[in-house]
Amino acid sequence: MAQDLKHHAYNEDDIDVLEGLQGVRKRPAMYIGSTNAMGLHHLVWEVVDNAVDEALSGFGELITITIHNDGSLSVQDEGRGIPTGIHKTAKVPAVELIFTTLHSGGKFSDKAYSSSAGLHGVGASVTNALSEWLDVTIYRDGVVSHIKFANGGHTVVPLEVLGKTNKHGTTVRFKPDASMFTTVDFKWDTIYNHLQESAFLLKKVRFILKDERANLSQEFYYENGLTQYVGVLNQNKEAMSPILDFEDTTSEIKMEIAVQYCSQDYNENILSYVNNIRTKDGGTHETGFRAAITRAVNDFANSNNLLKGKNNLDGSDIREGLTAIISLKIPESKLEFEGQTKGKLGTPEAANAVQNFFYTKFSYYLLENKEFSNALIKKCLDSQNARIAARKARDDARTTNKKKQDLILSDKLTPAQSKDYKNNELFIVEGDSAGGTAKAGRDRLHQAILPLRGKPLNTDSITIEQMLRNTEFATLVSTIGAGVGQNFDVSEAKYGKIIIMTDADTDGAHIQTLLLTFFYHFMRPLVTSGMVYIAVPPLYRVVKENDSRKFMYAWDDKTLEEAKSVIGSPYRINRYKGLGEMNAEQLKETTMSPGSRTLIQVSIEDPLVVEQRITVLMGKDTTVRKKWVEENVNFNYVDTFVKEVK
Fold first, then answer.
1. C-alpha distances in angstroms, 625 versus 292, 507, 509, 516, 618?
2. Residue 496 domain boundaries
3. Which of the residues 507, 581, 589, 606 is marked catalytic?
4. 341 or 347: which carries more pLDDT confidence?
5. Is 505 one of the catalytic residues?
6. What is the C-alpha to C-alpha distance for residues 282 and 93, in angstroms, rounded to an integer?
7. Do 633 and 509 lie in a common domain?
8. Can you tell me the distance from the alpha carbon of 152 to that of 145, in angstroms, rounded to the nearest whole number?
9. How confident is the model over 282-333, as pLDDT tens digits?
10. Cα 175 to Cα 180: distance, rounded to the nearest angstrom
11. In CATH, what number is assigned to the domain containing residue 58?
12. Can 556 be counted among the known catalytic residues?
């Protein structure tokens, strides 16, 4: 192939022009990120965002999303209805142009929308391109209009008038093209979580989610959106203050910021949005907020002589235990994102707007609520002292090689030999048996092994002091070597990957959950930096009878059937009940070797869901946990769930 290309002339005849939406079908991942479940649901978000933008602009207070029995999904809004008149340049109905042409729509200027979540035509046309069929019904100007597309966005039913109506709005119903995706099964939980987040951000707009397949229905409506959002995030925490909500709807950049401090929380939890889009990577609005809260707290502390001659408080000390949600509405003409994913706001004006607004509001609150303000300064000083002490302890440890005397550490760690920390890996292993096998199969230069003694402590709702009295976690903190809680510095970590390696059973899953709860509460930057992983060991080994050299591994029942077919009869099956049942070579080649293993990277896609799940599954209220399990876990389909996770 390479030789053929080498002798082929590259000229004008080699230039392909993909008409209409062919480019989307040719390279779908360029437009929706992937063709797995995440990409599938991206089609939903694009259509929902159009309905949200209507509500955001003041048109319509009800959005209904229905998952239908035939595998399609519909989004119905009560907005103005997509225009149906003939476009003066394209000479086709506007609705047809929107759904068949990239970069068309009403959101490239401020005329139709003062602010919007996305680019109307891009979303609608991409969803159309990747659908088996897409049907649009429009209620506008007293008539019902209809148009239908199929086979990747081709018009099969031209725009037609069906009758008269008093309604207004748009209904879009589409069925994803199964040939374009690895799955076309819409997930109730995924859509549920997205709509709840949208309802928090778009207060007083009602969202209804229906699922005809399971006869499910859920309504989301919040009178005090961000306040209630913070309340859900902090529902299991000890609050230091009421939830404070500051809003400005008079400026060109409209802002709402809700904040609350919790006394036993050692993390900062700042979520930011622009035009209802989550800015996961922050941006200028977060920069302005951080500057404002740091300045306001230090100004109050200095004016009341609470620092007693010490230097100003560091921003990280001030944000310890803070939950904040920042939501901005920015006109299209001023909207700038860094990169194509819209994960980071780049609008320069947002920094000053947020800083001036929040500094003024929060400073006034501090002056009017001295009891809270004094308690906050004390919490900040405690954080400062702990951070300085932790830094000193780490520096002392480097120079004297002494262990902290107040930590009881296990002697189970088998360290990596390399000092190239970024390329080192720490395997947290379930039990001494698996630990011994892992030690024998590891790469001694870059892989360290830490076996656990039994199940770790549930670290939800406990203090750092209580956690550090646990031998397993004290050892883990010492091993990673980057501190803990607010004093954790991810750049100091001695490992580039922290890999949880447990048995593929319910006990192993429980241990994974306990460890992830620990990392989330006390070393969250490890998770947000993508440094925490879960190893995926095989469940089966299929071996040819009378020829042990011929074998295959299987990770679930589907791959087991494939392995049996490839190996051929007669064969025998080894079922691994635990990691200790594999020898060192088997564990190495299936689960530990970078060239052949499978790892699941742990990430936080939806902070609201994470907080809710940890509160329910790891909190002290057993009745809430029991209710959630009864409503959400179908024990007849555990195998199916495991396959999907893998």
1. 39, 18, 16, 18, 8
2. 401-537+602-645
3. 507
4. 347
5. yes
6. 39
7. yes
8. 21
9. 899 999 999 999 999 999 999 998 987 778 899 988 998 899 999 999 988 8
10. 12
11. 3.30.565.10
12. no
